Amino acid sequence: MIILDKLSSLGIGTSRAASLGSRLAPDFFANLLRLASEQGVNLIDTADFYGSGDSERLISKTLRATGLPFFVITKAGLPYVHTPGWLSPLNQIGKKIKQRAGARSNYSAAYLIDSVQKSNKRLQVEAADALLLHEPNWDDIANADSWDGLAKIRQQGLARYTGVSSNDYRVVEEGIRSGQVQLVQTATAWQAGGTYSIPDLCRKHNIPVVGNQALRPYKALQEKFAQHTAAIHQLDGLANMSLPQFLLASLLADQKADTVLFGTSDLTHLAHNIASLRYVAALPPSLSRLTQLLS
């Protein structure tokens, strides 16, 4: 059983692994997780919202077939449609209709408990490794009993850890104050001169941070990185570092996340991104110079 302080520095995101138009075949997904595990990756991030539960089903089927050791984060609160497994192809169509009709997120205790029970059934586990509130802002939870819901989830043995996935500082602050947040997921994409107040808050309280959206700046930085590639590769220890590798490794080097997520449907891409770890130790002395080059 994997505990929080043993989570790997990189994790696999599955937001599109079971979505319409990008669904991964079970055999391919198994190969992807085998390669990740061989390289020391032990975290998978999912949600009931991803593929309307089909992502959780894919993860469950793969882990049971392979026996691979992974810590699985799932999330709840965003609107989706749940039907039995054999009707699951209809879920994603129903979810889109529901969203267009203005369905609201729900972070009430009763909804969260029901959601994690359904997630556990799809994951075929008695207790989720971690259950996070999925992207709430302050207005979503200000008058909700969300923290009581997380407390009950742990008390009832439905999840080993609870937490929040949010970019709203006030939500994360209140969650930590409640005592029901042991894990935080938030956007930590590299920015020149950027501030990272949520990771700083979490570090103050010894709460592990899982960073998402790490590759978001890729398009904006692609031209500038190409322009300065030669200069970047001359920096000590950074020869051959690519832009995706920089975006992942810089967050770890700058201690803005304990684990950084990325998604992929390509084995070569997976191996390339995992190789970003070789640059983490070399990056700190060069971060200011890289900021100058990429600003």
How much β-strand is present in the residues?
5-15%
What's the tally of helices?
Answer: 13
Tell me the helix content: 40-55%
Uncertain stretches of 5 or more adjacent residues? 90-101
Shape: globular
What structural class should be given to the helix and strand makeup? alpha/beta
How many strands, which pairing sense, and closed or not: the largest β-sheet? 8 strands, parallel, barrel
Radius of gyration: 19 Å
Structural description of this entry:
The protein has 295 residues and is an alpha/beta fold. It is 43% helix and 14% strand. It has an 8-stranded parallel β-barrel with strand order 1-2-3-4-5-6-7-8, surrounded by 5 helices. The longest helix is centred in the middle third of the chain and has 15 residues, at 109-123. The radius of gyration is 19 Å and the shape is globular. It starts with 9 loop residues before the first strand and ends with a helix.
